[in-house]
Automatic annotation (TrEMBL):
Keyword Cell division assigned: no
Organism listed in the record: Parnassius mnemosyne
Top-level taxonomic group: Eukaryota
Annotated transmembrane regions: 151-170, 223-242, 263-284, 304-326, 397-417, 441-466, 478-500, 520-537, 549-571, 583-608
InterPro entries given in the database record: Acyl_transf_3_dom, O2_lipid_transport_reg
Protein's UniProt name: Acyltransferase 3 domain-containing protein
Cross-referenced Pfam families: Acyl_transf_3
Amino acid sequence: MWYEYLILFAIVKECYAVITQLNDTEYGRMPALFELDDYDTCLRKFNSLYCLARLDLFADPPNDLIAVINEYSEYTAKHYNHSYIERGVCIATTCKKYINNTNSNILDLNASLEACLNQTIWNNYGLQAKLTHIFYCNKQDDEIKYDWSDWLFGGILAVLVSINIIGSFYDLMLEKYYQDKKGDKYNNENPYILCFSIPRNWESLRSIKLKDYRVEGLKGLNGIRVITSFFIPIAHVMWLIGTGFTDNPQEIEKASESTHYQLIFNGLMIVQIFFVISGFLMVYNLEVLSGNVPVTWSLLPNIFLYRLWRLTPVYFLMILFTATWLRYLGSGPLWKLYVMSVVSDCRQYWWAHIFYINNYFPEDKACAVHTWHLAADMQLFVLGSIMYIATKSKGRSLVITLLLLFSMAAPALHVWFQDLDALVIFKPEFYRSFWNETYRYLHVLGHNNLSCFIIGMVSGYFAYSWQKNRVEVFRHKIWQYLAWCVVPGVVGLILTGSVFYTETRLSLVIRMTYAATHRAILGVITAFVILGLVFKIENVQRHLLEWDGWVVLSKLTYCAFLLHLNMVHILLGARTQLGHVSFFYVVINHLGIVTLSYLAAIPLYLMVEVPFNRLIKTLIQDTMEMNKKKL
């Protein structure tokens, strides 16, 4: 009897086998994941129809090919799900004999399209295909109709341009008529109109002067901000090749085996650098402010208002553009899939973005997904400001310790209760479906990013206190040696994420430990770099980060960050043929998108970000002067 059980065990094991790798010949036996008929040629034909559809593959047993497909697809950490395929089909050419009337009802279209594609799959692969979803069908005369939201964005844009023209003209007239009476000019000018002067804002962009010696010590933060911002878009550029409709998807499935791709996949953690900087600057600036005015609860609304006013105008304009005019910037067989879905989500969830709570709405899958960082940062800023004032007199060390412990426990508990991965694993299906539970329920939530913000706050306290009391902490040579270990240390930390790209999922304890600690480790490294800049631990790297050019680029970073993802969406949606996967393609697109983002950021910075920042500063200054006069 024993051999019968052995045979049964072997059969069961085979049923649940996972194929981790296929040679090119075996891989080529499977139906191509993606195919696109010629879109432009198709729609030139009279009364033609172009449909994008999903088909699920199946076969009557026994069929070795469907078994290979299912077992290969089981390795979800590295492989696409090959049990379903996606096709862009020109009805007039590919399925002409199945569909004689393109105006037939949807049931007839579904049945005819399924019969057509099923026959093609059967003839080529001996498999059957069930049409599970028609994403949409495009016609030659399809047009997007304008609505009130398009006019609203156009009106806001017209007002902004007009105000900037008026402000610039006003400034030029002052320069022309009062160049010999500068005193009179500055006494009689309207500072509110001049906030919208493009020449003045251009000078502000070009200026690298720093007003405070303490700010001079923070100059290197510009370098950190720009360099980090340069690498952020590369993960989004991966969408161009990872989402699908490529002629060699096997390269994406092999990507996790390459070190350079692992640096991209696991490099998502570098966004934590911004949380450290944000926490540091919040505390440092409040400490500086407390030397001039008492920082009490009465000041808290002004602190929040200033931050909201500084970030929201540009952000709101970008969200409104995405929800309206973005849809008119292109067309193609994939435009509705990759662009209109973004537009639709922005129309539905714009309010969540404006209130900086979009990272807690997993239903918002596509609208400005990169701005989860802004929402989390705003949430942490509010929490940090309240904590700063609440612990002004006592209990600060205890509260910081408790918050730090909570910030490390929270991600671990998410992993435990929701059975998540320790970090976002860039599975091919994540790109394809725009959905990953670890991303939505761990990575983007504000409380799970608290550790780096707290570490930044602590470093801000130390920096201000040591500067104020002239404490020399970093005199020993060992700190210089540690400074040179920072870059290798960060790269090494990023590469540790590669251990999770395995056939067998790592244990819960390992996943919880990694989720709890890797952010804090990167936060400590970043805090050390910031303190090293302030106290001049090492000169070579410090001079690199304090290069004057970073000051100008840093001013454009926020606008460039907001703009870059829409460029990715446009490139995705405008594609009319299958793309090709290669690391060179990723690099070229990354450089192009970053360059275009910074160029597009210039007018946005000059006409929106700077004017509104100067406007709130002018209002605050005038309010303070009025209060002084009342006293």
